[in-house]
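Hi F.,

I've been meaning to write this up properly since the lab meeting, where we talked about keeping a consistent format for the predictions we share between groups. The idea is simple: the sequence comes first, exactly as it goes in, then the structure tokens exactly as they come out, then a line or two of notes. No screenshots and no reformatting. I'm using this chain as the first example so we have something concrete to point to.
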Amino acid sequence: MHRDIHAVLRETWGYAGFRPMQEEVVRSVMAGRDTLALLPTGGGKSLCFQVPALAMGGLCIVVSPLIALMRDQVERLRKCGVRAAAITSGMTSTEIDNALESAVNNKLSFLYVSPERLGSELFKMRLPNMPLSLLAVDEAHCISQWGYDFRPAYLLIAAVREVHPSVPVIALTASATPEVTEDIMLRLAFRKPNALRGSFTRPELVFWTSRAEDKLGALLKVTRNCPGSGIVYVRNRRGTVQTAHYLMEQGVSAAAYHAGLPHDERDRVQADWSTGEVRFVCATNAFGMGIDKADVRSVIHMEPPPDMESYYQEAGRAGRDGQRAHAFLLAKSEDEAVMRERMLGSFPTLAQVRRVYQAFADKHGIALGAGAFEAYTLDLRDLARRTELTPSTVNGALKALELDGGIALSEGARTPSRAMLRADSATVYRMRVEDPVRGPVVETMLRMYGGLFEEPSIVDEEAIATHLSISVAKVRKILQDLDRDKFLFYHPRNDLPTVTFMMPRRDAATLVLDREALQLREERARRRLEAMAHYSFRLETCREQAVLAYFGEATSEPCGRCDNCRKRMDTEGIAIEPAGRWGHDEHGGKRSAHAG
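Output, unedited:
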């Protein structure tokens, strides 16, 4: 007997009603139909699988490539009293085994997994015994070779369907062209085509492109004429710092955010921006995934992204509260050549791929025939130094290896420290009362964290150190010693992205890649770049219409808000509403509070 979906929505999240399209998607899933939900960024995609999963009962497996997003969703579900866990490429076999055991024994409602783990023997052995009721595939465009972020590990999802053929699948994405939409349903073996598309129209969002050569001056103008908080997207780490410093020198509250910062600094910047202490975050494109801030008034790109999919997703982080917001793209003539150069640099030669593969194996001491399903940290700059290649070429080589199925890449996200007691209770008791150095640390952990005997728990070395009035370094040293002695399992946090070997290490000298697949990937990347270049430098018609047309949505009327529409209306002498300082009205329609 299924629970009422509105009761689930109200009792678990406190929402009175669904957003547009959410209920239609939920009811499609509840009816047992394979469903592809195409909803714009900020459209509340997660509730489209979370609500029916709780209403139906049993276990929902959620496949996602984004470690940070998985972690955030699991934490939010747990705060709502929902049983949830995640398996990612950075976890040990002990942690994975515990999570899988909980799933088999019906102790979880949601199990989040990274796609590469679907092919592991540990997962495949447990899968038939899981009480699976729903399979959710987030970022579903990753399964399509036509998509802008194809990940071969997503193809492993079909094997899950073979084991549980009667279980419905829900695929979700915020960016899929008609071609990709069809490919997603084919790859996921939909029993019947069923794509539910929410409108990608964002009437509260103004698309505005400036071709000013002085980008910093244009950015400053935005900050002074467009009130509220914002995100400034910059291509590289150095640029985020330089841009933030420039804004601060001009009296604008700003901070830099990139993967090279210490995790404490990133947490601080994100928290200060979320609460309004910092007005603008100058960041690489890693910033924004899973961030729940509805009142972002502007997203500014300091140069064009590589494709329309990335641009729409990043721009769509503005105005999620339904109030007027802006997506500014700052482009100058030199940017187009830089875009093309970067694209070409992301397709290295076979010799370069071999060099990167050998250097990575040497760095981590991976022997021939070893390393299958092991995760290793990735330091892109160190690998570039070892190979004497540019970081972009190294990244392109890793992408080529991933496309070939040899490795799987994760995004760089902070994985918190985790610990679990391995010794029996009698041994732990003796440690607590007899060891004056290590005993207090164990005692404090037992008091601060529950379930240390059952499964790995997130631990905070700083909190332990503060409680005991000792240094953080000393706490970490004690935990590392206890891990070495097999008294407990200790996995310190890690800020770096990882590479998971999907097969035993091969001989780099004889490594061969699928030439046809690589050529196809380059051709598709070129097509996406041409679409972005046309939008950035040559488009003279309505920008909203161009964005919607790219994703297969036809509109009959120009938006009347973007820079091209305003130019046309001014030229033709069309009467327009009183305008704000950016040439448009400043009053967005207020949207009612809905789910998601």
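Notes:
DSSP finds 23 helices and 19 strands in the chain.
Residues 576-594 have pLDDT under 50 and may be disordered.

If this format works for you, I'll send the rest the same way.

G.
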